[in-house]
């Protein structure tokens, strides 16, 4: 199965809008590979269908875009002193306007996707931490009233204790969901950057992963749910 279909097939229900928009990023790369003009890259960066630029339908007015309309990339929140990665790289500076427009569009979209995924992860992490603290508190309270004997099958567990156990099972399930969310999005960034390098004949992948992706809490192995649980 190709990765574009895989990332859609393995999405957690209700979380689909928070995954890497792999399909849209591929559109920008395909536009570059097809040697489309800079105006198409600008349209893609702004979320406008290229067809709407030249072929407006009905009463819809024509949309005018230019490379200057592409928003500039920004530094990541984790390191506000670090300059934008595109301006800090000297490679590709001698390539044409069409290439530069596609490059700006691609990395602008990639940064927005990274911000989206990281923000969602931090929200879910906070929710899971709160649930864990609540469950630990409930378990301590239940333990003070007597721990059921696991070796005595005739002993019926109190409702309170059973509820706590179920809560931990659900928490473990949701932790696994979040871990898979992290892993498949991490794979998505690696694959789309590899595809960009191949089609654009650039060498951006490793530098972007190290400077922009892997420093974010969502992809930082030091702070991931798995490492904390260990």
Number of helices: 9
Order of helices and strands: HHHHHHHHH
Let me know the largest β-sheet: none
- The average pLDDT is 80
What amount of the residues lies in strands? under 5%
Radius of gyration, CA atoms, in whole angstroms = 24 Å
User: Low-confidence spans: pLDDT under 50, at least 5 residues?
Assistant: 52-65, 74-83, 226-230
- Looking at the structure, what is the overall shape? elongated
Q: Helical amount among residues, as a percent range?
A: 55-70%
Based on helices, strands and strand pairing, what is the structural class? mainly alpha
Query: How far apart are the first and last residues' alpha carbons, in Å?
Result: 32 Å
Oligomeric description of these chains: single chain
Short account of what is shown:
The chain has 230 residues and is mainly α. It has helices at 3-9, 22-33, 38-45, 51-54, 85-88, 97-144, 159-200, 205-213, 225-229.
Detailed description of the structure:
This protein is mainly α and 230 residues long. It has a domain at 2-46 and 96-117 and 171-219. Helix content is 60%, strand content 0%. The chain is built from 9 helices and no strands. The protein has helices at residues 3-9, 22-33, 38-45, 51-54, 85-88, 97-144, 159-200, 205-213, 225-229. The chain is elongated. The relative contact order is 0.14. The model is unreliable at 52-65, 74-83 and 226-230 (pLDDT under 50). Residues 58-91 are annotated as: Disordered.
């Amino acid at each position: 199965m190709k990765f574009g279909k895989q990332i859609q097939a393995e999405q957690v229900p209700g979380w689909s809008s928070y995954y890497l928009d792999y399909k849209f990023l591929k559109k920008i790369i395909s536009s570059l590979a097809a040697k489309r003009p800079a105006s198409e890259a600008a349209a893609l960066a702004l979320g406008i269908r290229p067809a709407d630029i030249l072929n407006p339908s009905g009463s819809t007015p024509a949309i005018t875009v230019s490379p200057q309309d592409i928003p500039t990339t920004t530094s990541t929140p984790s390191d506000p002193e670090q300059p934008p990665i595109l301006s800090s790289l000297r490679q590709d500076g001698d390539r044409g306007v069409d290439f530069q427009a596609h490059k700006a569009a691609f990395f602008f979209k990639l940064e927005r996707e990274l911000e989206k995924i990281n923000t969602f992860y931090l929200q879910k992490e906070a929710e899971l931490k709160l649930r864990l603290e609540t469950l630990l508190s409930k378990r301590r309270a239940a333990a003070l009233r007597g721990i059921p004997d696991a070796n005595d099958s005739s002993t019926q567990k109190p409702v309170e204790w059973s509820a706590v156990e179920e809560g931990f099972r659900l928490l473990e399930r949701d932790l696994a969901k979040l871990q898979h969310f992290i892993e498949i999005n991490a794979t998505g960034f690696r694959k789309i950057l590899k595809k960009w390098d191949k089609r654009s004949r650039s060498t951006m992948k490793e530098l972007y992963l190290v400077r922009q992706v892997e420093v974010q809490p969502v992809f930082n192995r030091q702070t991931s749910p798995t490492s904390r649980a260990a």
